[in-house]
Specification:
Blueprint lengths: L3 H6 L20 H10 L2 H5 L2 H15 L3 E3 L6 H6 L2 E5 L3 E5 L18 H13 L5 E7 L1 H10 L7 H9 L1 H25 L3 E6 L7 H22 L5 E5 L6 H8 L3 E3 L6 H7 L6 E5 L1 H6 L1 H14 L5 E5 L9 H13 L3
Length: 341
């Protein structure tokens, strides 16, 4: 029998709520910090399948969460497309050459850069309890493109948004290329053992409504459609951070099986405005988890109550912060597991 998370993503509205947390495998865990000190930098960890599998499993062993999210990074796709990728201490990821300065055609694909990720998925699935769901993921095309064009993260995606206005054809070619690689990448994760996948669109909120339709909804709809043809039973979670009032259109038009919502969304509004019966994931503020205490418990219960009448996967509104006390995560799990519909 499928685990609670997988059943919920497929539309079951049971009395209990599954829970997993974005960035649950990572820097807030002492066991992760110990392994990273032993193994070295972030990218070497991602490409060491045994180490990446161990990191993926660490929060499952500690907390018994309902899903294990692959330990990797959204920039593996541009890396496989031929950009060089490095993570600099204190600066974050850098891609080169920047597509603001170089043509897409100048990149030479290196698809073998995806293979170690599939090895990680296989190792995790082999060790994961049968009732826990293996979650794969990829970045959504718009968010991935912002890094490919600018070469690094930015606060307002100025360079990428300007290029998308200035040279529609060139930017569309970048988006289309990302879509193609992402479909194959996620398919590879599924064949390796992933039972559901999430599309992370961390910078979706930076776009005007018409641009959101073109660069967020349309590419994600293409990915979901292609995956449905290959894997009709595969749940796809879409997470368009910052979508705001555009969220219902995203949910309807992309065809995602579940929609993740960030902490800026009122769960009562989301429960009312999103398509009936669509599973929802979210949306506790990561800073409330960092703070812990009674206020966190009250907001957790408010979110659970708001989504009582539809399938709901409890999660954060974005990734868990690296200074979050592990005791607060245990406190959160106690509240979620103690709630019933």
């Amino acid at each position: 029998m499928p685990g609670l998370l997988l059943r919920t993503l497929r539309g079951e509205n049971g009395d209990r709520r599954p829970i997993w947390l974005m960035r649950q495998a990572g820097r807030y865990l002492p066991e992760y910090r110990a392994l990273r000190a032993q193994k070295g930098g972030f990218l070497p960890l991602v490409y060491d399948a045994e180490a990446a599998a161990e990191i993926t499993l660490q929060p499952i062993r500690r907390y018994g969460l309902d899903g294990a999210i692959l330990f990797s990074d959204i920039l593996i796709v541009p890396y496989a497309m031929g950009q060089d990728l490095e993570f600099l201490a204190g600066e974050g990821p850098h891609l080169s050459p920047r597509l603001a300065d170089a043509a897409l055609s100048s990149l030479h694909a290196v698809p073998q850069r995806l293979s170690p990720i599939y090895d990680t998925v296989k190792l995790v699935r082999a060790q994961l309890p049968a009732d826990k769901t293996m979650l794969g993921f990829a970045g959504s095309p718009w968010t991935v493109a912002t890094y490919m064009v600018n070469g690094e993260g930015s606060r307002d995606q100025h360079e990428t948004r300007a290029m998308a206005y200035r040279d529609r054809a060139a930017f569309q070619a970048i988006i289309d290329a990302i879509v193609s690689v992402t479909v194959d990448y996620l398919a590879g994760q599924v064949l390796a053992g992933a039972e559901a996948v999430q599309l992370f669109d961390s910078w979706a909120g930076s776009l005007a409504p018409s641009e959101f339709e073109r660069w967020v909804i349309a590419p994600n709809a293409a990915i979901v459609s292609a995956l449905k043809k290959r894997f009709p039973e595969l749940p796809v979670i879409g997470f368009p951070k910052g979508a705001g009032e555009k969220l219902p259109a995203y949910a309807r038009e992309t065809g995602v099986h579940a929609v993740g919502i960030d902490e800026t969304i009122d769960p009562v509004w989301a429960a009312r405005e999103l398509p009936a019966g669509l599973p929802v994931q979210g949306n506790l503020d990561p800073l409330l988890l960092l703070s812990g205490g009674d206020e966190m418990e009250r907001e957790t219960l408010r979110i659970l109550d708001a989504f009582a009448d539809r399938p709901h996967v409890f999660n954060l509104g974005h990734g868990i912060g690296q200074t979050t006390p592990v005791e607060h995560v245990a406190q959160l799990l106690g509240v979620v597991r103690g709630w019933s519909r």
